[in-house]
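DATA SHEET
Item: assembly model
Revision: 1
Owner: S.N.
Input lines:
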Amino acid sequence: MQKEKEKISDSLSKLEKIVSWFSSQNEVDVEEGLEKVKEGAVLIKDLKERLKNVENEFQEIKKDLSGEEE
Amino acid sequence: MNGEVFRQLMAWRNEKALHMRVERFKILQNKTIEMIAEEAPKTYDALADIKGIGKKKLAEFGNEILGIVNRYGGETGLQDLFSHQSSKTALSKEQEEQDKDAEKEPVFTVSNFLNFLNTKFSERTVCVQGEVSSVQVHPSGIYFSLKDKDDESVLNCYIRPSVYERCGVVLDEGMEIKMSGVPNVYKPKGRLSFLVYTLELAGEGSLKKAYELLKKKLEEEGLFARKRSLPEFIHRIGIVTSRTGAVIDDFRRNLMPLGMELYLCDARVEGVRAVDDVLAGIKWFNAYMPDLDVLVVIRGGGSLEDMQAFNNERVARALFASAIPTFCGIGHDRDVPIVNLVADRAASTPSIVAMAMNASWDRLRENLPTLRQDLLYSFESAMSGVRTNVDTLLEKLLGYIAQLFLRFRHLAHQLSRALDEIGARIESIRKQSNDMMASVLQSMSRVVRDMGTMLHARETYLEGVSPERNLKLGYSIIKNEKGKVVRSSSDVKIGERVTTKLGEGELVAKVEEVN
């Protein structure tokens, strides 16, 4: 789970980097620019997926009463 | 095994559990009751030997258990004090006692009498409310007096340390409390005191006081100062609250559907058992699901009295000790519940907690569309530069091509003109040659004609000079033996034979003389 969280964070910062890469270039190399956009598109798709409506799972835990208390 | 003792112990145990609001096995396990009924211990020592009876149980319930065993089990002892018959009669206990009193005055030893009293006292748990005065905290327990609010009546009270700790209330003079327990005579001193089983604060004033005391104490300890940040993109949530009621529904309804995992630990959030339940929940999550993103403790609003579990020292400390970041959403008005102060984050309603869970996704939810746009825009503008270049180049290229075409057309024009010239030349040459041919033919025919004329003249001439004609005219031609035409007399010798050709025929003659 921790991994997924990091993945989201990583993907976001990667995306941010790509966007700032474009603005940092005086003249964008077409090949490289295309590569970056492709990469960005994949990231956006993944992240969008993560925001898609997915029902929350609800579960009541069964704790062992005799085991847990004093 | 004595069946009656067993039944009585079971009945006593069940009632006790009900009064103390704990599970039955916490008082005595069935197995232990069976063994007591089997062994029928008469003394503390004998009771202590039974498996399942520890020091704690002995101190807490020893009197009562021994009382029941004595009353229903033994052939000797106190049984006689209560009943003549060993089998049960339809008579009530009071009647039995009255009957007995009427017949015979029993004589107790002091110890037996106090045992008898304690047994009688322990049969029913009672609730007493009053005001606390003169609290003494001692390793063996907490001693205090409970004063009547209206007159000066005083009840001495005693709480075992374990019970006191579980209550999570710091007793102080002047507090109003409601306690349950049984009266008990302390045998070495003969002093009556109230053995407290459970205790809770009563009355707004004491609750407020307890709240202020605890708040001050925990604040000084620094429990309110530590605030850990909640993780981003909260996904797994542990929830401690009641499974019934609007709170959990409210919380769930306000969460966005982001595929979160919610784990509920059901806990009573009001009443005497609330403290233990909430504690158990906090501890359970930390023990079994320590990788949760956040531990949420929620409850709707209520009075200070309803809220005791959330102004409880033990709960507050457990929350502080939680390795999982904590988020408390306990409804309140003026006084912020202690747990809200201790938690890493707090809100005044469960819905706000849910919204904070949602907000942990904001960076993704809000930035993603912007980033997407930025990316497209950056790429487009970058590409538009390239496109402009391409356009310029294309234009230039088209210019070149147009120029080329122009030159080509020019050349083609020139070429066609040249071809025309050549054609004209060829025509003129053909004409010339035709003319030439005509004149040649003309000349030739003239020459042929001339030649004919000339030939005719020659022929005529030749005809005139032909030897044949002369021969016919009489001339002859003489040839010597050598065949040579004889032109002079020297061409022949005497005696030589010569051949003479005549106009008609030939003759051979012999030279006779030469002159």
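QC remark: DSSP finds three helices and one strand in chain A.
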